[in-house]
Model the fold of this input.
Amino acid sequence: MARNEAPASPSLGITRQSFLLGALVFAASPLLRCLPVKAAGGFDVAEVAPGVYVHQGRYEMQSPENRGDMANAAFIVGDEAVAVIDTLGSAVVGRELRQAIRAVTDKPIRYVINTHMHPDHVFGNAAFKEDNPTFVGHYKMARGLASRADQYLATNNRMLGEAAFEGIEIVLPTLAVEDKLTLDLGNRPLVLEAQPTAHTDNDLIVTDTKTGTLFLGDLLFSVHVPTLDGSIKGWLTLIDALEKRQVARVVPGHGPHAMELPEAFAPEQRYLATIAEDVRHLIAEGKTLEDATKTAGFSERDAWKLFDQYHVRNVTAAFAELEWE
Amino acid sequence: MSLSLKTVAQACGAAVLALALLPTSSAIAKTDLWPILKQQTFGDRAIQVDDGMVVLEAPSAIDDAALVPLTVRVPPHVKQDLKSLTLIIDNNPDPVIATLTFGPAAGNGGERSFSTRVRIEDFSHVRAILETEDGNLHMASKFVAAAGGCAAMMAKDPDAETVDLGKMIVKTFPPAVDSNPIWSGQVMIKHPNNNGMQLDINTAKPIPARFVREMTVKRGGELVFQMDSTFSISTNPNFRFTFGRGEDNDLDVTIVDTDQTVFAGHSDPRGS
Done:
């Protein structure tokens, strides 16, 4: 989709359109147009703003065919160095991301930032070890990832197959963000902010202040159904705060290369609010967790990809949280 | 710091990883532990299998191995009082995950049931063995395809879980029709139910086991059931059960964990 578009227009006159699965906004807004960059082997990245490159993963579960390429990853080029934001779901595609960076710049890769602990965002970390970067994450990410490591490795080994699993290892952050931290790539400050429990208990967001690009990780899902591994109440509260941010564009963890606030959050907010409302209603009626997994939130089924793969788990987590209200 | 596959396996128990790395078909073909478990738990007593006296409900495909809902039902056509109920997950560590001994307030005259949420370590048979008043044993079982490893024992937000430890909610639900003498109750307690297999990332040592080991539920001073349990009950243990209608239908619940901490709860007054 992005690959066929014209170079970015200097016009700032944006007509806000109602949000329809991201794609329409994307096509309509000059600010969100991006330049295609082709890398070897068909691995695509798009330049969504000067010096900001985003790779869009597939809306799929991990498989031998997609080799763990099912989340968004990005890199930012400063005057002196490069920062990578998420590394995809295997060392194999992590290496392709690294090649794409090398096709753009020879500057050193100084930081590898993970937006949270999930394998589809961190299992490519191993591909960057040769650059000896600082690995950066939320201060709770190391605990979260280390304690789930055996499960993540086993599951991904099974789902990816031997070829795509090759080279994967758990690489934990060497620099932990407790609250707010600024990294400089040379005339290019990146602001990293640790978030309270929402999608997970270790979500980290990154702002490239030079272009006003906000990387939300999996705090923002578009098209791909959200996955709840933290707190539904915390997530809904955080959306209320994040959607008010004044930025030129946001990059979701799953979805188009770039989107606009506040519309970008609307479908996710509706999905989570629907689950919360349905589950609270069932709890008030004395219904069980099993009852909830059969009915809550099913009005959202046609609005998302991978609904059948993740929705029941989301409802289960929401129920276990909300029954304590 | 990076953890290799090997160190993680050593930390969490190599058996879990070794099994998980095998194709799933091999996992299913693992040694059948049931004959040994049966002998250890019930000796030479005969067990009637799938005779309709007890029904076990569990999802066949698991979305979250740390939170698998199990429900045991005793259909209304069963008229006997109940003596005990044993829940077994063959391939979990400490497979006998809960044993309930029923008292005079357990009720009779309608469908009786018991539900909880459990952790399932591995592809496994899950079994419910009911002992009726005549001393006979009846079993229902289900094969569950869930594999969590020790990570399944991890809370989503471990810091939040420790804040309210011991908070308890006890609820009662009257039957839909007044002629039904069977009420429902629910007990929830905030408790991590640590199994001793989780790794503390700061010390690289296991977090000490601490879990609910005993629960007693009484209605008006009469025993509904007493339960012995293990760490296979999910974080924030949650139980739904039935009991017989009484003069009043308030429940008193006592829970004891492995640290010998005693937690007491009482149902909210209903209809008064």
User: Anything to note?
Assistant: The first helix of chain A runs from residue 23 to 28. The helical segments of chain A are 23-28, 91-104, 119-122, 141-165, 232-242, 266-284, 289-295, 307-322. Residues 1-31 of chain A have pLDDT under 50 and may be disordered. Chain A touches chain B through 39 residues (CB under 8 Å).
